[in-house]
Amino acid sequence: MSTTYLAATNTILKELNEVELSSANFASAVGIHAFAKDIINRAYFDIVNAEEEWPFLIEGNPEEPFTGSLYIETVAGTKFYLLKTASADIRTDFKSIDWDNFYVTTYGVAGATAPYTNQKLHYVTTQYYNTMFRQEDNNTVFEAEGYDTPRRVIRSADNRYFGLSPVPDKVYRIYFNAWTQPARLSAFGDEIVIPDSWINVLYARARYYMWQFKESPQQAAFALQEYNEGLLKMRRSLMEQTPDFITDDRIRFT
Amino acid sequence: MPVAQPFTVVPQGGLDLVSTPYELLRKPNVAVKLDNFEVSNEGGYRRINGFTAFGGGSAIQPEGSNQIFGVQPYGAGVVVCVDTSVYYSEDGITWTQINKDLAGGGNDAALAGAAALDRPSQGQAQFALMQAPVGKTSALYGTLIIATGADQVALFRIEGTGGSKTWYYEELSTPSAGKYVEVHERHLCIVDTTNAPSTVYYSAYNEDDDFAGTGSGSITINDTIVGIKSFRNDLYVFCERSIKKIVDISNPTSIEVQDVTDDLGCVSGYTVQEIGGDLIYLSQDGFRTIAGTERIGDIELGTVSKNIQPLISTITNSPGSYIFNSVVLKGKDQYRMYYSTSGGSATNQKGIIGTLRVDPQSGAYRFEWSTCSGFDVGAIGANFNGAEKYYHGDLSGNIYLHDSGDDFAGTAIIYNYVTGDMDFGDPGLRKTLHWMNLSTEPEGSTDITLQWKFDFSSTGIVQPSQTDVGTLSYGAVYGTAVYGTDVYGISTPLKRINLLGSGTSVSFSFTGEDSYPPFKITGMYITFVPMDRR
Question: Is the pTM of this model over 0.95?
């Protein structure tokens, strides 16, 4: 079971010898208790935003045999697709997308039979896309015979959609990985998605804010150091190691 | 890095109901509630004793559940006025009616067979003791003078002891009634408020029944008398709007009435007591002392109860609502005034306790106040001499040993001591509390609850929940201690209590409702960490 908002807040209050909150008075807390609630959220988002791809924030589950945790089925002739289905605006969109791991397949599509289409979609920048492929894709709007199996993926200007090039000619499944943006903690029972084994990092960060509030810079510095060390350990433990190779994606040299 | 700092509170000063919350920040020693506590003349605040039934578990009411009008230790027992009768008992179990036609005296059988002299108009009683008046010098205990209002003043005495007692009871024909009585310079002084409410009658020298002979007389004062009290060489006459004194009562040529003050009076003669070489009484503006009134006049500075003035005002605004009684507990340097309401529940009956203590700053004596509740006092009496004995009777016909036992005759005592908010020297700085060393002197087991509240008990913040103080060590008491179990010689044990929470100011309250022995809170050592100014 994950740590709840109430439990995390009370941990900080207890550390500082403050009166703990209860489920009954949690919502109406004021003063230092309201501040304790606030800094739990601040610390929470500090950790969440410290990395794009925390594994505990991954959306969906890996779909065998593909590495993507999510898929969207294309519609013939449609170029752009909303990354997060039914998301109203950017505030509820995914936190992060792994643009380098989009994958297209016909496997699993209703009516599709072997041999299936299976290939990685190459991410191209908007600038590169506009220069090299936009005109060709735009022509398909008027000439439907230009539709084809997508080979590239681009992102929309507002970051909310992915686009396919060429424009799909039929139904495909597009697999990709996305990381969710956790909601701000609000109710006493809201659960913190950070694994319990790393919750102390959150406490260190919250303590840092609390000691600042209490005008104790030395204690705040200790807490900050503890937070930084904890975050580093989190990265080492939870994130993938250094990539095998590094690519240079610069396209112009002067 | 914040460093824990200490703060010490020594409970003294008593109840303070007049200081503003900000003034109280600088007065951590006083209390804003101090109910069923008394300021100890040895320091600290002590939970009061209770009272126990006179007669213990076999106690019998003198005459049903009628209100007790008067109770007075006399001889080896207690005299009680109730309904239309007067009773005497030495054990609280067997009551002997003594308002009998027995002027010539008689033994137990004669007393039992004598005709009763009913006192149909009895009200609140007042007693006086006259030792060895003329013709009655063989009475070991003296003559007890009983005044109950519109009835004739009664004289009661016992000669002899045990089974060979001779009982005497008679009623004076002159004056024809008496409400206030006092013995002053061996004159029996009586005020008959029914027929002559402004007149003080005084007997012939050393006579308890001669108001016509040489040396007797009367003096009329231009105000309505509410009480009289002998103090040193003068008889003080407390009136509704003034206070006088009669000087030279034994000298017909120089006897005169002198003004003490013409601008304020006394609320009730039953509040007048002698303590600390002075007379204290309840005036319209608070408790005053005669010495202070004579010296300062009628200005408010003359009151000795400024710290509880709001409480006094609620009483003096409607004095007719209360039955006033007072007593001095000499061993405690303590003045107690009870103000009961007829028909009120026992738990809501109130009293005020004033302890005479030395002001640590000035070195002068001053009263430090507290309150009590649960004392349903219809009458109270202390013995005039010998070992201290205090009795009170309630409005339901019961007689109790006052200031005795650990509860109110079987009902738990509800006590409450609340400090004012204390800021530890800086009202703008948040302080996080860590722990308290509570210095106490328990007289047995205790069950004290501690609660502390921040920022003037703000309801907008989360306040700590109350906590049990826990077991306090106390020394063994000879007669009840068990060898090998109880501990000998413990004094002033410190009890460490963990605190939590933070605020700019904090107040502490010690409360409970139990039948455990009293305890004294003598100090608090509080550790806190200064924090922010947000």
Answer: no
